Give the backbone structure.
Amino acid sequence: MCGRFAQQRPAADLADRFAAEVIVDDPGPRYNVAPTTDALVVVQRDDRRAVTAYRWGLVPHWATSLSAGTRAFNARAETVATSPMFRDAFRRRRCLVPVEAFYEWRRDGKLRRPHAIRRADGDVLALAGLWSGWRDPETEQVTRTFTIVTTAANDAIAELHDRMPVILPEEDWATWLQPAGAEPARLRALLEPREGLPLELFEVSRRVNDARNEGPELLVPLAD
């Protein structure tokens, strides 16, 4: 599962990292991004790769309202190719969601203790995502939305949760972003759990539990 994450880097830095161009105003650093809010994503159309911002929670084109995306902030890797909600986006509209960290919770009795997961070397994590465009039938306004693909947790994450976002290494970015022509079997292979990722996990403040809280202190390791 992935229900909260941090995006600290400026959009221009992400554009350099992903060999893309920025086509959106920089929202500034965010440490507690939650579903139904806008977040930065990397998309590709033909030969153009761009950093832009879409709404988190995928709404397929056939949905009757934006509320369809409220619970579609994750897509299971095992069914993403066949689910009516996600299969069209899986075929043609894939994206990367660049994050500094994502959060997961460990239950301790009645408490939910948040933990941050990030790369030990400080580099950005590229999460596998899907996107879609939805047109409001009353205003004709198009809203672009996205979801994060999840898979079975690897050994490092399993102590917290049985699911984790799919983390794509740099050598797979181009394949995942390819708008058309990628073999479905090859794409599905990218969604398998990966061991040996350079990740570190640490407990953080329970202020993360409230999506209204923001600030760099949310990503500071909790003192022992």
About this structure: The two ends are 26 Å apart (CA to CA). The first strand starts at residue 5 and ends at 7. Helices lie at 11-17, 87-92, 173-177, 184-189. The CA atoms of residues 65 and 139 lie 12 Å apart.
